[in-house]
Amino acid sequence: MPPKIPKSVKGPGSTVGAKPSKIIKGRQKPREEDDMTVDEYGEDYVHGRTLVRPDDQLDLTETELKEEFTRILTANNPHAPQNIVRFNFKERSYKQTSHVEQIAIHFALDGNMLHKDSDEARRQRAKAGMGEARSEIALSEAGEEEAGDGEEGEKEEAAEAPPPKKESLRNQFNFSERASQTFNNPYRERGTATEPPPRANFSSTANQWEIYDAYYEDLQKQEKAKDKTKQVPAFKKDDDKTKKKLVALETTSDDISRVTKASKIVERMVNQNTFDDIAQDFSYFEDASDEFRDQEGTLLPLWKFSYDKAKRLAVTSLCWNPKHVDLFSTGHGSYDFTKQGRGMLLFYSLKNPSYPEFIYSTDSGVMCIDIHPTYPYLICVGFYDGSVGVFNVKDKRAGPVYKSTAKSGKHTDPVWQVKWQKDDLDNNLNFFSVSSDGRVVSWTLVKDELIYADVISLTVDDVPAEGPDGTQLQLLGCGTSFDFHKKIDYLFLVGTEEGKIHKCSKAYSSQFLDTIDAHHMSVDAVRWNPFHPDIFISCSADWTVKIWDHNYRHQAMFTFDLNSAVGDVAWAPYSSTIFAAVTADGKIHVFDLNINKYEALCEQSVVQKKKTKLTHVEFNPAHMIVVVGDERGYVTSLKLSPNLRKVPKKKKGEESQGIDHEVEIAKLDKILSLVREPDNKDKK
Amino acid sequence: MATETKKEEAHDFRRLHSYPLIRHTDMPEEMRVEAMELCVTACEKFSTNNENAAKMIKENMDKKFGASWHTIVGEGFGFEITHETKNILYMFFGGNMAICVWKCS
């Protein structure tokens, strides 16, 4: 950094002028005091000191002091060589050079001070610009300067007056400009050609008769269509509409629906690979250990069905599709009175266990479903809010095709069971429902609405209760389940929450044919035997399953205690003596009366978490599997081991196909004859 | 008597045949409906001037579905055309009018 001119010049400059003699004095004894710092030395240099004699100085006499020694100082350098020769090219000989450098430099120091009036000082000032000027002003204000300095300051200001030229300060000695060239990317050519839009040719002729003919034809077509629509019944109209809609959709949609079929096939293929071992088990695995256990059987868990949105929604009903034996529907809702909410109706296929085939979401919990035996795409549903509805899988709409409302006679309590009936005399579809409001209602699908008719009210036999103001209230029983006789069209059974089972007829709406005090708690399910016309089974929350002959109403043929509330019971479709029951402790019990009349052949827990209640069970009509639903929304399919599906061996020569009803009835009769007591038979 | 019935028929024919009747199209539903409505509007607006009707249809189709539409409006004509697929509509209207709209660039 260059020295600051004003200070450096002024300070010592002024003292030099003031005390020249002191400097001379000081010079005589400069290096005698070794301990001085540079600064002190400098000060000492300026001010000087009194003479101090060194200790080893010679003491000389006066005469000796006065003696003169003559010394001649020459400017010749004693060390400089005197005999330098150089080759002279002119004379082609060595010659002694006459001129010898006599200057010897013993010490050189470049000062860092400048005279303030010198050119260099001016240049630096110009470069430093205003900063210097300011410090100059600050100094002048301090008032330490002499008059001359003040004048100089003015001069400097005058010198600074021209605006300072701004120059970038470069290192002049080590400055180089640099430039570099970046790598150029190689060029590449690329081109595409689009396919021209597809074109087609069209030609026609338009004239008056063509136009007339076209209109004429169209009118005739329209009239025909009108006639047709008049003829077809109401709900087929709906189908036509949906067909039209479908056609319209097919022509317009460019989205994923066009690949629906292909994607479904691929999905099933993937699932087939994923669940290959289960599929193999389903077809071929037979529990070999059954041969060594006479009276026991096992259930092999196969696929497990669940759907994210239906998790924690209890399986409230199960129903196999009568036409497609791999397809079944599940109803989801809740049995908990305090936790009611939405419901779901799902359709699963054994071919695709990972995702439902059809999904319907409902506002109220689904409590029961039934698939129509001849139109397997129609499903009637009973809801927790008391309404009933009919879903059509063919119809693409998201909700029910028919639904009962408060105006059209819906139940006031949850609907516990629905069942399709044979078409009525006008060929209208109809189904029955039972609810805890004590009514059994018949619903008929007419055009686009549900017509209802009360079939029976479940009156309680006891004396009517007295109302607070003396009016007599007729108490109604709470229906929880029912089943229709397979052969006798009018006969059906209704189970109630009071534990009674009523034998009813469709013909009488006020009276029961019979009432059985069957259970101590609510009857969860009642089902006729698929073979024997007199036998039915019932299960209840009082932990029991009972088998009845409807001619012997005072006494159950068999009673089984399962040590937990029984959620559902189902007869096997292939044998008259086999049935399965599911209990609230997560177990499934399979009985074969033909083998063991006292205990279950199989008692197996099928839930993953303990305390999960099983709610429903259903046998597949064709395959040897059952599906069970639990209250967490899972449905498990289980394969019955050989011991659980024993049927009587057929005699040689008999047809080997199909189930022999006579044999099945005889088999059951034989067992029942042991327990029937003729005295107890009802008097007819 | 015969003339009367004929007259009646003619009247009936007029009344019955006034609706637009699509003879041939491969347009998607949305486009078809729009094009059809446009043709009907144009023919009703310029019921005496087919040229103006055709012009109106062409210009509107250009605006709505991109350039290079062609239109024929008339009572009798024959044609053989090349069109871009999904872009043709051939319809009758009013019992005596034929309209052909197609796109080809």
Automatic annotation (TrEMBL), chain A:
SMART domains: WD40. It is found in: Cytoplasm, Cytoskeleton, Cilium axoneme. Pfam families: WD40. Its main location: cytoplasm. Residues 170-185 have a biased composition (Polar residues). This is Dynein intermediate chain 1, axonemal. The keyword Ligase does not apply. Residues 142-159 have a biased composition (Acidic residues). PROSITE patterns: WD_REPEATS_2, WD_REPEATS_REGION. Keywords: Cell projection, Cytoplasm, Cytoskeleton, Dynein, Microtubule, Motor protein, Repeat, WD repeat. The lineage of its organism: Eukaryota, Metazoa, Chordata, Tunicata, Ascidiacea. It comes from Clavelina lepadiformis (Light-bulb sea squirt). Residues 1-35, 118-204 are annotated as: Disordered. The keyword rRNA-binding does not apply.
UniProtKB/TrEMBL annotation, chain B:
The keyword Transcription does not apply. Its main location: cytoplasm. Keywords: Cytoplasm, Cytoskeleton, Dynein, Microtubule, Motor protein. Pfam families: Dynein_light. SMART domains: Dynein_light (SM01375). Transmembrane segments: none annotated. It comes from the Eukaryota. It is found in: Cytoplasm, Cytoskeleton. CDD domains: DLC-like_DNAL4 (cd21453). Belongs to the dynein light chain family. This is Dynein light chain. The lineage of its organism: Eukaryota, Metazoa, Chordata, Tunicata, Ascidiacea.
